[in-house]
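Many introductory courses stop at the sequence. We go one step further.
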Amino acid sequence: MTYNKKIEVQLLTETRDEIGQQITGWETVFSPWSEVKCSGGREYYAAAQVNSENDMTFRIRWSGKIAGKLTSELRIVYGGIIYNVIHIEDVNDQHREFVIRARQLNGEVRT
């Protein structure tokens, strides 16, 4: 495997400011090296506009520190583009690498 692309794995967090108001935001949980492959995409019409999806596959090394944190409630930022996590797999339960399938919706870009 060629883990030569840096990605950010982010989790939606909720905190409170000094006056007690709830603040939600994305926090980078870890930034592993990854192998990145495009696994497809499509365009479709909905609500009188053209929408697009771009599917990507990210392979990262397995780590006990991150094994419990990988859920579909995460997102990945790669090249300034945001991908919502669809599925995470520990390949053959061998604890060597994770394969993460993610989807970019409607040209979502990091803000």
